[in-house]
């Protein structure tokens, strides 16, 4: 479903974030991407969302070489992916509901459907009662759940999370992880880049370990 | 279609709120744009008013045709009159001529006596030295160049000795109008560039303020068109607000100018009047300004999105 073939990612200045990485992530799996800071976890996620492009090699999603995508094709590709960020990336001048509805508005859905689906997504993460609040009035854990609701509202094929529990206490982190496993049960491919070793021994999840831009452990191979 | 319209109305509403949230900067931009746009409008209107004066002059332009059927007094009075009338008929066949009036030698002498104050001297003359003439009334809509061509054509007619008309004055006025018109055009072009730069700069500031929003929308699958939309409304609305201010400034200035100018023109028995702004001009100014605003926003955003995506792609 997601395949990296001999991917090299070199940033301007000559830093190799990924060096000849080849991995295969099956459809409907949940995968932890782990490794120390600078190992290349975020770069792998960015290559999947086309926020970055591989310097060499191929990244295939559903058997398509996404590095060939241009213009609006990139936008359409991103609509199939839900992204959760460590710093939430919520718009402070919009309500929780408006933030969650944003991917649907971008996709051209009507106002009534947007509101209905945004509320359903907020209900799933347990924040429906806060839908008219503004993000800055919420706790870090609540903001992260809003971020997750926004990531899943468009019913994506792939859900990517970059250090989603990085700023949360263990109890909240567990709650957030449960949500990812819940979405994975709906056939969503989930990839979580994390430092949090407490979750890595979950037998239901695959594991990709990165070290210095190279795969050092792969539970799929 | 319904969703598309809904989305546009929503963005329009959000953009109006965006503009209203910073009234100081919105008003300042509108005033700067207003001053810039009002200058060419005023110059155009003054030039237009002058064009109407040339129309008035052309309408009053007369070409005097002096006829030489023979040496004055050589032909008999009946014979001479007939020849002149025949030339008059030929002149009437010319399409640019509205009417021809015959003035006999006696009438010319009489008029000369009355206007010159040399009555006694003229009475001492043995015979009338003044020729008969034809006064030609050209069509009212003739431009100075056409009038000049008509005069040449009349001078070439058989039996015509010479023609005279106030050509120099007309040509000078025409030249002045052309200078005004060219000035207005150059000024309008420069101001258009100015408007584009001002709006481009305002949009750039808007981009800086909303860069996080742009990046998030880009990340969640927003197309370039979607990202651009609020900024296109922003640029267009800014330009329209500038155009409205410009129309107020121009209207006020022309109104204040009209009275003294009209009074001055009246003293010179001229029908020159400063034209105030009509609905067509107002509409044109708003449409052109809106287009400039749209263009400025389009190019600024286009550049920003290209740069943002290129930098993400490591270029």
Largest pleated sheet of chain B: 4 strands, antiparallel
According to CATH, the fold-level topology of chain A is Rossmann fold
Biggest sheet strand line-up of chain B: 2-3-1-4
Q: Order of strands across the biggest sheet of chain A?
A: 6-7-8-3-9-10
Point out poorly predicted stretches of chain A.
none
- Distance between the ends of chain B: 38 Å
Output the number of helix runs of chain A. Answer: 6
Description of the structure:
- The complex is a heterodimer of chains A (221) and B (315).
- Chain A has 221 residues and is α/β, with parallel strands linked by helices.
- Chain A contains 6 helices and 10 strands.
- In chain A, the strands form 2 sheets. Chain A has a 6-stranded mixed β-sheet, sandwiched between helices. Chain A has a 4-stranded antiparallel β-sheet with strand order 2-1-4-5, covered by helices on one side.
- Chain A is globular and about 45 Å long.
- Chain B is α+β, with helices and mostly antiparallel strands and 315 residues long.
- Chain B has 10 helices and 4 strands; from the N terminus they run H-H-E-H-E-H-H-E-H-E-H-H-H-H.
- In chain B, helix 2 packs antiparallel against helix 7.
- The interface between A and B is medium-sized, with 30 and 24 residues.
